[in-house]
Write a structure and sequence with these properties.
It contains 16 helices and 16 strands. The chain has helices at residues 43-49, 87-100, 105-121, 135-148, 171-185, 205-215, 229-238, 245-250, 269-278, 286-291, 299-305, 323-336, 346-353, 355-360, 388-394, 399-409, and strands at 2-10, 25-33, 36-41, 55-65, 67-73, 124-130, 151-155, 157-158, 191-197, 220-225, 259-263, 281-284, 308-311, 378-381, 415-420, 423-424. The longest helix is centred in the N-terminal third of the chain and has 17 residues, at 105-121. The structure holds zinc ion.
Length: 428
């Protein structure tokens, strides 16, 4: 047992429905037993109830729930910074040549370690990870994630057309390799499996049928949608009978409460209605959308239609693994949208970086806030003395104001410690 004490902040409520301020909660201490939060309250009360238990003091800064990244690419950790290209050119010139190198398991092992250590050092404790096109590279990722205690959902990336030939697999191979990976890794500790066609642009109807068969095994589903206008036009040409981009997945029953679609920058109203009806979630990736010039995410339309939205870093198109930077960019984009935008408060930003992701990934019974009974996945954000953030935190009026300053100024250098189910990460 350990008692942690500091300024402990989480968002058990939903700031998109009701008063945003009412979604925020603050406490002084948490009691953690075997990695799970057993009690919360004042330090005096927890010490009185549990005398003799060790107390870890987290003085300065804030303790918040571990971040949940709903869309990030493991094979792209070495491919960040390819500026100046739209999506399809960026894929061809920056991302896919690097992804092809993961055919070598030793290369994949090194990339998996770099990816996961940096993800955790950025405060992310749960993630829906877009995998590799190579099954041995997925074994490397799952093995490394298990060693580190990351709460991870991931899967083999499937494509059978248009991409460079060394990244393609047939629907038959996709079925066999995925079934094998599901057997070994799905629901093993904190790991889960997600069926992952890259996007319907590179997946034929036969491949999407194979995905539907795999989804029948009770696993998760993720892919890309409506990111870029040239991509959308290509998909429309490839599926002339589809009503819209989402229909290319819906026709194969891939739009479900266990489905997470990345981007959705350019949806039509029918797609938003379908996503809401089927309970599927969207991963909004603001720095990626900005870097690739993909567009300004219509958050208000998603929220008003009842579509769940989480945040993704989308590394390597995104500008880094630090979810608070994605939250800040999401705020910027809603400001830039003017009257069509949805103004975000600091409470919205904390919610988007934590509980919204847990809900999108169906993990909200286990993580995303500091309720009693949930896993102690936590990030201690404490800036170095004298830094601009430290100066600003000293002058914050209240906790909400402190959150605003953290989301504006914090970087991964301000992550002082990370806990994964009660175990302090060594890589931070
Ligand atoms: Zn992506």
């Amino acid at each position: 047992m350990t008692i942690y004490t500091g300024t402990i902040v989480d968002t058990p409520g939903d700031p998109f429905h009701g008063d945003p301020a009412g979604a925020l909660r603050q406490d002084e201490a948490l009691l953690v037993t075997d990695g799970v939060i057993a009690a919360r309250g004042s330090l005096a009360a927890l010490r009185a109830a549990h005398p003799g238990e060790p107390v870890t003091r987290l003085d300065g800064g804030l303790l918040v729930p571990g971040f949940v990244d709903a869309h990030v690419h493991y094979p792209q950790i070495r491919a960040i910074g390819g500026l100046g290209l739209p999506l399809l050119d960026w894929l061809e010139q920056c991302a896919l040549p690097e992804e092809a190198k993961l055919a070598d398991p030793a290369y994949a092992r090194a990339v998996a370690a770099e990816f996961l250590d940096n993800l955790i050092a950025a405060g992310t404790t749960s993630a829906l990870v877009f995998g590799s096109h190579f099954a041995p590279a997925m074994d490397e990722l799952f093995t490394a994630a298990e060693q580190r205690g990351l709460n991870m959902t991931s899967g083999l990336v499937l494509s059978d057309r248009i991409l460079r030939p060394d990244l393609l697999n047939s629907p038959e191979t996709a079925l066999a390799d995925s079934a094998d990976l599901i057997l070994r890794w799905h629901d093993r500790g904190r790991l889960r499996y997600a069926v992952t066609p890259r996007f319907s642009l590179s997946a034929s109807d036969e491949m999407l049928d194979a995905c539907a068969q795999l989804l029948g095994k009770g696993v998760w589903f993720t892919s890309h949608i409506n990111e870029n206008l040239a991509e959308i036009a290509t998909v429309a040409g490839l599926f002339p009978a589809a009503q819209h981009y989402l229909d290319t997945y819906r026709r194969h029953e891939l739009v479900t409460p266990r489905s997470v679609f990345a981007h959705n920058v350019h949806p039509d109203d029918a797609e938003l209605t379908l996503l809401a009806e089927h309970g599927a979630a969207v991963a909004h990736c603001p720095t990626s959308n900005s870097a690739l010039g993909s567009g300004l995410f219509p958050l208000r339309r998603h929220v008003e239609r009842g579509v769940r939205v989480a945040l993704g870093s989308d590394v390597g198109a995104g500008a880094g693994l630090f979810l608070p930077s994605e939250a800040l960019q999401a705020y910027f984009m809603q400001q830039l949208l003017g009257p069509a935008g949805l103004p975000l408060t600091p409470v919205h930003l904390l919610y988007l970086a934590t509980r919204a992701g847990a809900r999108a990934l169906g993990l909200d019974e286990r993580v995303g806030d500091f309720a009693v009974g949930k896993d102690f996945d936590a990030v201690w954000l404490r800036p170095a003395d004298g830094s601009t953030l430290a100066v600003n935190l000293r002058h914050a009026r209240d906790t909400t104001d402190a959150l605003a300053r953290i989301f504006t100024l914090a970087t991964p250098a301000d992550v002082a410690a990370v806990w994964l189910r009660g175990v302090r990460a060594q890589s931070v």
